[in-house]
Amino acid sequence: MLAGGLLTTALGSAIAMSADSAAATVLEAPYRAPYVPTDDAADLQDVPSRKNPAVLEMLQRRKLLGATPHSLPAALALADAYIDFGRHIGDAHYAGYAEAVIAPWVNANPAPAQALLRQATILQYRHQFSAARDCLHRTLRLDPGSAQAWLTLATLDMVQGDYSAAARDCVKVSASASVEWGIACSANVRSYRGQARQSLALLTPLDSGGAVGYRAWIQGLAAEAAERLGDWPLAESHYRQALALAPGDNFLLVAYADLLLDRGRPREVLELLDAHAQSDTAFLRLALAKAALHDPDASRYAWIMSARFEALRLRGSDLFGREQTRFALELRHDPGAALELARQNWAQQREPWDTRLLLAAALAAGQPQAAADALAFVRANQLQDPAIDALAQDLRNELKLSAAVKR
User: Which of 4, 86, 196, 379 is spaced 20 to 30 A from 278 at the CA atom?
Assistant: First the structure.
């Protein structure tokens, strides 16, 4: 979810799915014994270093809150640090840390708007959309001029495919914040409504200044708009510029990796994501790249990915619906399971990748009618996307053939 993820980043802030599916089953291990390192110096897992400036900042803010435990500003500062760091590296644990920090204020009566806004951000990150929406509405009743709340609500509406509501939210952003923020918000909506070229025209002047995070967000939105147009070199240029501004950003890395996979460049994905395997979303792209290259390690990566899903299920955590779908479709080669996962996922979120996977799964499973609602959604919103266009055309042809046979 690049656009939504970068929006929450710009604000200063997982794709949740049920595990009740055959796709959560762990694949057969490609080996019969546990891995035992032969060298005491072998790296088993990368963890954030205390030398990392972001880690140091979290430690300092946690110390400040410990000294002033009843300070809302101190709690909000620490929660923001956790949210930003977790989103940046793709680790949902930090959202839980942030939630624990602000819980006393969220549970207060009345709850302050600032705490409710952070809680909404956390819930959206987990894709608990209904609860996030409730928190945002409570925030806006307390603070109708909160630009961050309106922008978060716009993000949520875009994720769920309600572009008319998102456009209205963007107007509120313009009224509550700078015009530039409102323009960026509106440009993002346009990229999903068949107006990607207009979106790029609106975004281009916005990259001339502002904070680094803001500029990375604008570049990421421009990359997505270029992808909608099928302008791969332009999209790649924007991704590279965004990553130069925000190196290591998980949303940007994953989105760029998807572009590289689509363009048949899996070896570059391995280079891009090699240092980011702790992120489940990044690890899936590594597994896909290994499979595309017929790498000897491909089966091990697929097994590790399935084991990660299973570990999430066993500890009661939400799974990544989009990633589960893609795993079932492209690594397990189980279109039936993929279709069921895709349908569940699309009921909650309707970004272009979610739509694309539902269309692909329906086509692979030989059930074109299962994609009827998604096809109608694509048509109604004039969604631009070369991969979706091709899949939609194939499905429509299948539906026409099926109708002709019945006659």
Answer: 4
Shared domain check, 195 and 141:
yes
For residue 244, what are the contacts with CB-CB under 8 A and spacing of at least 6? Answer: none
> Would 27 be classed as within a structural domain?
no
Q: What's the N-to-C CA distance of the chain in angstroms? A: 42
Residues forming beta bridges with residue 319, ordered by sequence position: 17
Q: Across residues 128-146, what is the average pLDDT?
A: 96
Structure pTM? 0.87
Verify that 139 and 268 share a domain, yes or no: no
Contacts 24+ apart (CB under 8 A), 131-136: 132/156
d(CA 400, CA 275): 47
Q: For residue 152, is pLDDT > 80?
A: yes
Q: What secondary structure does DSSP assign to 299-313, as a single string?
A: HHHHHHHHHHHHHHH
CA 209, CA 218: separation in Å to the nearest integer?
11
Verify that 8 and 128 share a domain, yes or no: yes
Query: Is the bond leading into 30 cis (omega within 30 degrees of zero)?
Result: no
Same domain (yes/no): 333, 314: no
Segments forming the whole domain that contains residue 350:
324-407
Q: Which two tokens mark 289?
A: 């790249």
